[in-house]
Amino acid sequence: MQENVVNSASPQPLVSIGIPTYNRANGKLLNVIRRALEQTYQNVEVIVSDNCSSDNTTEVVQSVKDARLKYVRHETNIGANNNFNHCLKEANGEYFLLFHDDDMIDVDFVETCISSLKEGVTVGAIFTGIRIIDSEDNIIKESKNMAGGLAPIEFVLGWFDSVLPLYLPSTLYNTQLLREEGGFASKRNLYPDLVATFKLIAKYDRSDVVDVKASFRRHESNMSLFTAIDAWVDDALYVLDVLYELFPDDSYILKDQGRKYLCGKMYGQASIEANAFKRIFTYLKIYRSFDYCYSPIKYFYGNEFSKRFFAKIFRMLGLKK
Questions:
Q1: Do 24 and 107 belong together in one domain?
Q2: How far apart are CA 8 and CA 5, in angstroms?
Q3: What's 43's domain CATH number?
Q4: Which of 162, 194, 221 is where one domain is finished?
Q5: In which band, very low, low, confident or very high, does the pLDDT at 7 lie, cut at 50, 70 and 90?
Q6: Where are the beta strands (DSSP E) in the chain?
Q7: Is 217 in the same domain as 272?
Q8: pLDDT band at 214 (very low <50, low <70, confident <90, very high)
């Protein structure tokens, strides 16, 4: 990790807020744009990158009259992750936020992040606490950022322990350093933000804000519901490989805790499968993919089919009447 690097940033550096969007004109898009522009920290630019929407996204964006707003429309759909990186490409700011078109940041998010910077220190990223909200803006959960003072490897292990949640809307990146690390990219582009985050915290200082200043929306259209589990497993294993390279001296503990955590995450993804036989088969595939490090038995027993199935087995073995 680089420490005490001279920071050439101005006292009020420009912050770029990238909003990738696709067919959300009738959703939260307008509110998201307005919140980005109404930040108490005014030195921002807002980049809306439209991935060839077929709705009236153009009209919605152009209804907002603000010189700080830039609208880019792609002639063809370039894919979600390419659209993320296009926002980064268009950014002129010293810091960059990728702000999804249905998530939300507090009105003082940027001001709080920039105020946390220390003179003379270059950071790779700034993190705040996060709240999880539903489609109706109801708060499901809030988590403060308790990473202050933790070493980079402790930060990663905190994520494995589910005490340091990492989400895009609560992460403000150093634009130049993010570009130098390849932007947002992973093997299947399902965890591109995590790969970027881990690369930056391993190599540079970071700034941690305790307070909750951003919201991630969880609802039925999240990508996890529509992506094959094999792709999620492949990308999860890729994240582990990246971490082994970044923290070679801690590869043993990363392998032990990381495999268990991500294996559990994959079981959670597989639980979406409605067909009970397919779900159990998928659990077993995941179990094998992660070298049998974390048994799926509790997931088997966590649905009605599994309960009946194992109850029958137990009765056959004389373990249950």
A1: yes
A2: 9
A3: 3.90.550.10
A4: 221
A5: very low
A6: 15-21, 44-50, 69-73, 95-98, 104-105, 123-133, 139-143, 171-174, 205-217
A7: no
A8: very high
Whole-number Å distance between alpha carbons of 28 and 9: 33
Rounded distance, CA 321 to CA 319, Å? 7
Instruction: Tell whether 7 is covered by a domain.
Output: no
Total number of domains constituting the chain: 2
b/e per residue, 301-313, with b = 16+ CB within 10 A? eeeeebeeeeeee
Strands 171-174 and 123-133: antiparallel
- The tokens describing 60, both together, are 């919605």
For 214-228, letters b (16+ CB in 10 Å) and e give bbbbeeeeeeeeeee
Q: Where does the pLDDT of residue 274 fall: very low under 50, low under 70, confident under 90, or very high at 90 and above?
A: confident
pTM of the model: 0.89
Q: CA 297, 254, 193, 155: dihedral to nearest 10 degrees? A: 110
- The token duo for 225 is 């519901």
- pLDDT tens-place string over residues 90-104: 999 999 999 899 999
Query: Counting every residue, how long is the chain?
Result: 321
Residue 117 structural domain: 15-221
Shared domain for 123 and 198, answered yes or no, is yes
